[in-house]
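anyone seen this seq b4? input:
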Amino acid sequence: MTANGRPDHAEPQLVVIPCGSRKLGSPAPAADMYTGTYHRACRKAADTLRPGLLLILSARHGLLDLDDVIEPYDTPHGAADAVTARVLLEQATARDIVGLDPVVALGGARHAGLVRAVWPHARTPLAGARGMGEQMARLVAIREGRGLPPA
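predicted toks r here
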C-alpha cells in the first residue's frame, strides 16, 4: 500500500471479468444481465481497481461494454458455439485495445486463458486458487483495497 492507502500497483488500463450463467430473463445492458454471486464479486473487485476500461467476456458475444444491450443466452465457456480466442483477438484489434497494459483478468482458468490469448502479459490474480472459496476470498481482498497479489 502507498502512504495514501491506495494499492501499490498501477491502475490497470483494462480489466476483463467473466459473464455468468445466472442471467436476467429479458434483454438488458451487460452490466445488469449477469446476476450471479461470482460475476458480481468480480465486478466489485474490478470497480475497486478503477480501470481505464472494464469489459465483460461473454461466452457467446465476446468482449462487451457494460452498456451493450444483449439478449439472455445459455452458452457456457468451452461449448462448441462459445467465443474463441481468435474472435477475441479480432474484437480487441477492431477496438484498438490489444496494446493496453497493464491488463487484469478476473476469473477462472478458462476465462484467464482466453484473455491471455489476446494479452499474454495480463495479470490473473485468481490463478492457482484451490476452488471457488479461495477465488472469492481473493476478490474480497482486492475489493477491500489489499491490492493484487504479486504478478
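The chain is about 35% helix and 15% strand. The helical segments are 30-33, 37-49, 85-95, 109-118, 132-143. kinda curious what u guys think
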